[in-house]
Amino acid sequence: MAMRNALNGIAIAALAALAGCASTPEPVKPPSPIVSPPPVPEVQSAAFSSLERGPPVGSLPISAADANAALAAFVGSCSWATLKDDKSGLTRPGDWPAACDAAHNARHDGGADFFAEYFETVRIGNGEAFITGYFEPELRGSRIRLPGYDVPVYSMPDDLVRAWPDNMAESERTGRPPLGRYDQSGAFVPYWDREAIELGALAGRGLEIAWAADAIEFFFLQIQGSGLLRLPDNTLMRIGYAGQNGRGYTAIGRTLKDRGEIGEGTPYATSMQGIVDWLRANPDEANAVMRENQSWIFFRELASDGPLGSLGVPVRARDSVAVDPRFVPYGAPVFLDMDEDEADGLWVAQDTGGAIKGANRFDTFWGNGPDARRIAGELSIGGKALILLPKGTVERLLNR
């Protein structure tokens, strides 16, 4: 979830980073045509972007079922917008209470009327959008180490801290300090990378909350940021993002494509499943390729009925979307009209991710199971986007 790591801007990077994996290869349909995401704009937020009033919400082709599901998702997170500053600059906390109160009192089947009454639309820039998909993977795991369960699932280590390196000049110390650790000499150094952790840098410290059965599946679960472990007694353990080691992310899909290992002229598609198939077919090289991604994700057990997004509420399949909060207010509804119909409709901004940068860049959540894995792994499409804001907001923005 929010927790997903930074990706490069081409479609194969998004596919590589936002896909889970299956324990056995499965047929996949030809991937969608490669669509490049829009370049990340130089402006720092939507408040500095060009804005245009969009059509009335009631004129949009939103089905009753879609509107009702979006209403339920909106209720789950709208209070966040009433309390927190909006990094996009599009709204103020005081813009949201009327819509939020009305949502809590709306009929569960009255979504279409609710959104038409309380919202208006705005187009950020030209509205040209690019979307990918993510999902909640499921893999075999155990709370204790058992034969066949050898991949540790670590909780946050207490020596992972933020600090300024001693050799960094005061003038360079802007923003948050980097993540790292203090070594035996007392020097602040980068934290252990993926290879060091896999080779045992954290072993023996009691940080294991579970053990996974498959290293490749766990690699992709880390990229998703949350997932389900199917335990030996067939019960499920939900784990979610707790933190990251501060190391840079490398999209191995792009690495493999650049090397000619996947894509045109190879047996492996430029899709999530193609990447997984290559890793399984090349076990002697798989570890080295995965270790090129130095990022490592730490987890905690979740008691929620869904994976938690950036707002601390469960994200919902086909209703929650990850956004760049500098360009879309958290909690805002988003209408997508894409070049392929599968992702069309109303979504609610409840998550973010390192790859989700710039205006009109979205990552749609599809839940768990085989269908969710397939859809999320294949999504890489363009289209149009409208942001829904509380009525009265757009007039203020256009007259600023």
What does this structure look like?
The strands form 3 sheets. The protein has a 6-stranded mixed β-barrel. A 6-stranded mixed β-sheet has the order 5-9-4-10-11-12, with helices on one face. The protein is α+β, with helices and mostly antiparallel strands and 400 residues long. 25% of the residues lie in helices and 24% in strands. It folds into 2 domains: 46-133 and 306-398, Barwin-like endoglucanases (Beta Barrel), CATH 2.40.40; 138-301, Ribosomal Protein L25, Chain P. Residues 2-36 have low confidence and may be disordered. It is built from 11 helices and 17 strands. A hairpin with a 6-residue loop joins β14 and β15. It is globular and about 55 Å long. The longest helix is centred in the N-terminal third of the chain and has 20 residues, at 64-83. The relative contact order is 0.25.
Structural class: alpha+beta
Distance between the termini: 35 Å
Number of helices: 11
Stretches where pLDDT is under 50 for at least 5 consecutive residues are 2-36
What is the overall shape?
Answer: globular
H/E element string? HEHHHEEEEEEEHEHEEHHHEEEEEHEH
How is the largest sheet built, in terms of strand order?
3-16-13-15-14-17
Per the CATH scheme, the topology name of the largest domain is: Barwin-like endoglucanases
What name goes with the CATH superfamily of the largest domain?
A: RlpA-like domain
Q: What is the gist of this entry?
A:
This protein has helices at residues 11-17, 64-83, 97-105, 111-118, 194-198, 215-224, 252-258, 272-281, 283-291, 370-378, 393-398, and strands at residues 51-53, 119-124, 128-136, 138-142, 151-154, 161-162, 179-182, 188-189, 208-212, 226-230, 236-244, 297-301, 320-322, 333-338, 345-351, 361-368, 380-390. By secondary structure, the protein is an alpha+beta fold. The protein folds into 2 domains: 46-133 and 306-398, Barwin-like endoglucanases, CATH 2.40.40.10; 138-301, Barwin-like endoglucanases (Ribosomal Protein L25, Chain P), CATH 2.40.240.
